[in-house]
Amino acid sequence: MLPxxxxxxxxxxxxxxxxxxxNVSIVLVRPCPDPKFGDYQSNALMSLAKTRKLNxxxxxxxxxxxxxxxxxxxxxxxxxxGFLNFRxxxxxxxxxxxxxxxxxxxxxxKVASPKTVVIDFSSPNVAKPxxxxxxxxxxIGDALQRTLRLLGHRVISDNHIGDWGTQFGKLLxxxxxxxxxxxxxxxxxxxxxxxxxxxxxxxxxxxxxLEEAKSELVKLxxxxxxxxxxxxEMIRLSQIQFDTIYARLGVKFDLALGESFxxxxxxxxxxxxxxxxxxxxSEGAVGVFSDPAGAGLxxxxxxxxxxxxxxxxxxxxxxxxxxxxxxxTTTDLATVDYRLKTWSPDEIVYVVDDRQSGHFxxxxxxxxxxxxxxxxxxxxxxxxxxKILGDDxxxxxxxxxxxxxxxxxxDEAEKRAFEIVKTKQLxxxxxxxxxxxxxxxxxxxxxxxxVKYVDLLPNRQSxxxxxxxxxLALQGNTAPYLQYAYARIKSIFRKAESGKRKAEIILSxxxxxxxxxxxxxxGLTLEAVAEEYRPNxxxxxxxxxxxxxxxxxxxxxxxxxxxxxTRDSRLLLCDLTARVLKQGLDVLGIEVVEQM
Length: 596
Ligand code: ARG
Prior knowledge:
alpha/beta, four-stranded antiparallel sheet, four-stranded parallel sheet, 22 helices, 53% helix, 9% strand
């Protein structure tokens, strides 16, 4: 067991002895923010004391009297208002590293009680090109599914593709009247986009045209054979595009149940909401309004209200339009219901743009009213994110002002990375260059890694500025920097003639200790990512790891160490660092190369 877990369990047991009724699951041990005070810390005793009106320092002393950590820690210190600070014993540290070196763990453990989590992410729309914004939901969602899986949770990843809706009326009309077969064959999505733009403009200008499009939609909804087969063809062509991009990004889904999958249940959902008096008719449509029974929400926090000119007016979630069609919310309700029935998940996570936060607030409240029992066991979470901006601080666009297509962005990433790889290789003397046929692979790994990493690095809710030079830099908090750190460690092993795997770990230099202690926090970082759905915690952890490795490597000679025992111990530290870097990047969906 990892030392922080061991400390946590013993601390919980000691608390239970002093306060038998306490909920010890809140007694957690976390890394100490400042190593001056210790390696780990717990602040739980303060809140336990507070709710019981006890003196927190006295409580801390009582708990310490029951706590035997002689194996794990130096003397435990009580600090400030009742913090506990733990400092690991060198022996506990070396034992943990030795176990990792033997392959028993890599500083993380599978969770004791796995959760079932449905992750809804990526979710592009049919007949439209995937654009730069899709990297966000796709990358964050994939990093989350990888993290949860690694920790042993049960994950169902579902790509909720937008394959239904009013746009198909216009697309069908375009397909029947102005489709160019050759264009469709060479670039299907571009041709579908062209159809849509033309017909959409015509509909805006000419009500008769709009009626034509609507009647195509009605026919589709009624199951007309011709329209259904064209619609299916449009989905098939889009899926080819999606699959190409997912293959490049290395992203996999367990399922891709599009919106249309839920059509059979939509009318039932609305009937149910009406019968339960959760929804009501209004101007021919059906909508859900503020909960009359839930008088708790102040207007500001009530998503079913909107402020117009200083007055709060209703902003219902529509579930049936006046023409009988159903809405985005209706599909999402049917989707929640299906997911509950199919997997009884503990959580359903939606990785979707923050601009949809109003939709999800409404959805979650309706769900709680509609399925109160299920809502007690299933938590719905909106994992939102901000925008990608250009250097001018405005949404990132091409020079001509179009949205940036994701495929083209990935091409450019690889191309730019190739130039960097080439320059670096040509700087080296002839005999030290990597074979030229490996350059494209290295460029692909660096280019795609850079694009993914730059998107995962900021707090996901902030907007960030897309800058090629920064994200591809070999210095700073970038993927290429981490990939380079990995390759550099690997090169040490190529030079080491006989790195003994069974060596003993000896930690004496401060840089060795700092690196070792940071390695131990890998699992805690993964857990924090899984808990708060924030992959940026892991980015920062890995960046710090690479920094600590540099500090170690500059101050502690490895291959030129004074004696064989030190050398072999240091080689083990190198190896563990490389493994954590590789595993950590893999969780972020980023590959490494052994040489670059
Ligand atoms: N297709 C939607 C869009 O592009 C995103 C769907 C997100 N998932 C969901 N269950 N609503 O805006």
